[in-house]
Amino acid sequence: MAVLFIPREPGDETRVAATPDSVAALRKRGLQVTVEPGAGLRAGYRDEEYSAAGATVGAQGDADVRAQIHLPALEEIGALREGSSLLSFLWAPENPPILSALAARRISAFSLDGIPRTTRAQAMDVLSSQASIAGYRAVIAAAARLPRILPLMMTPAGTIRPARFVVVGVGVAGLQAIATARRLGAVVEATDPRPETKEQAASLGARFLEVKGVEARKGEGGYAAEQGDEYRRAQAALLAEAFARADAIVTTALVPYRRAPITVTADHVRSMRPGSVVVDLAASRGGNCELTEPGKAVERQGVWILGEEEWARTVPAHASDMLARNVQHILLDALDREGAFAWRLDDEIVAAALVTHGGEIRAPGRPR
Fold this sequence. Notes:
Largest sheet: 8 strands, mixed
Strand order of the largest sheet: 3-2-1-4-5-6-16-17
Shape: globular
CATH class of the largest domain: Alpha Beta
Radius of gyration: 22 Å
Strand content: 15-25%
Helix content: 25-40%
Distance between the termini: 37 Å
Number of helices: 11
CATH topology of the largest domain: Rossmann fold
CATH architecture of the largest domain: 3-Layer(aba) Sandwich
Number of strands: 17
Structural class: alpha/beta
């Protein structure tokens, strides 16, 4: 019977890779689970809850599988049992030394950021689940900073106009940002180089800002591609007017394994009203706003620019719940009826996300 180990995440990471509910589901399939003491505290889960769900609270030992969120340090890799498995964010194309260390210990490393965006993989897609949380949090953070309320309000003293949001990037995070802002009563405009997102944005009540006259490059795996100079200039001109009248901008534009594209320039920020807010969900990849300082909230020309690097961890309870379910589905997919754990190398999800196995470096992760 295989043993899974869940560590306490280091540093500022508040989430955890397993919850008592996911532990109970894994135990039903025969997987033994050991949880490091205090692993779930910052997400709201006590050690006693893990014990009640069937986990052992203790040290890693000779675990067969380790599941975590943070990129493993070299010393952590050295502590893994040779030939065991690791589930983690690995950002494989950007971390050759980590891959080499994993391969040297014959670790089967499953990269959580390498899961393909296919129908069957939806239940395992950690990036999408965390992006949805981030899109929600972006709007709440903007609302908390704004010196005005979001909804239209009719009062005896007169009418309060609704706040105006612009969402850049209509992926998972962008759609959730649109939906949240609309639920709170804001007027929302949205833009994305992928034409298929126009209908999705409109279905949630957003006005779509479409770049015309320039063909957008097509991306892979459900992601937008990095656009050329001509498109970026046309987009900047289109957005200039929308940004100038916006109370809040939420940027979500990401290209896998590359620096985030700049969609909000310093000139755009200067055109915004004092008290406005830019929430940059791409801050961990350098930022979509030219003035973003990753990890910081800064004020420039009276405009707040929020550069939190991982928005999902600001709501660790639900973020952990969703992430743990993703991890649960990955693990259950690799378990047989007796609780034995083995990767199925011919599976399309495993083929995309298993970056080291049997001493070799395999897949590079999501399409670049």
